[in-house]
Write a structure and sequence with these properties.
Arc Repressor Mutant, subunit A; transcription regulation (chains A, B); three-stranded antiparallel sheet; DNA-binding (chains A, B); mainly alpha; homodimer; WH-like_DNA-bd_sf (chains A, B); DNA-binding
Chain lengths: 121, 121
DNA sequence: TCATTTACTTACATTTTTTATAGTACCTTA
DNA sequence: TAAGGTACTATAAAAAATGTAAGTAAATGA
């Protein structure tokens, strides 16, 4: 787990910003490299660790683990472990996680539009 | 300007993700530590460099410059330099930049709600 | 006994982002 | 002549994020 240095200026700045600005608070949570994309896939329903890995071809197991752990910590996803061998672990969005759907959808639309504009100029 | 190493795996991953997922594309653009907050302030109208610096008490001049340059590069903000001494530079959102407003507003609402949930449990 | 499967974990290396500190140019005003 | 204000730039360092490679446990089937 990537430990954050709680004495760093960066940590203090993030805290202060998040305290004042809910959008910065939100960005800290969903801001990793893969978090939004993981959520996007989970909007369609539960997925196993291995399934997610296949859907995100370039992600390493380490990064997938880290991102899922972070999302779990913030209660965006729920992790269910089945006592089987080989192990089976399923990930699904929580209620608050699912509420990201319209936001991500809008972000997608904005991104597509922005790319179009940039491509033309 | 922070140069990106175009031979790194990280660069390739970001590219590939952004190509396929508009939300990842968007996240790359507005994903910096201060970008969203800068945009938030600019929704209310033009601001000078020094005004932004005062509104973001902990930001360094370097970071503010970097973030503004990035936002300018992606046509989110427009930079206007007045040929005066001492210099005056104004920043304002472009049309596509302004279209982030509803998204950021929703993010704020989501963030506030998430924080509330986390505080209670 | 041995390989197989799955979801990790660990140690380490590299890359990217953020912070720190000290400058600079320019004209105006004192 | 000197100080002051504005929006920066240069350089270095610290911190954070991401990537690489290898290893682990535990039951099952061969």
């Amino acid at each position: 787990m990537s430990k954050i240095k709680e004495t760093s200026t960066n940590f203090a700045n993030k805290q202060a910003l998040a305290d004042e600005c809910p959008e910065a608070y939100a960005a800290n949570i969903i801001g990793g490299q893969w978090a939004l994309v993981i959520c996007s896939w989970l909007f369609n329903g539960k997925l196993r660790f291995g399934e997610l890995r296949k859907l995100l071809p370039n992600i390493t197991e380490r990064m997938l683990t880290l991102q899922l752990r972070k999302l779990e910590e913030y209660k965006i996803v729920k992790r269910t472990v089945y006592a089987e061998v080989p192990p089976r672990v399923e990930y699904e969005l929580t209620a608050i996680g699912y509420e990201l759907k319209p936001i991500i959808k809008q972000l997608e639309e904005w991104g597509a539009k922005h790319r179009e504009l940039s491509g033309e100029s």
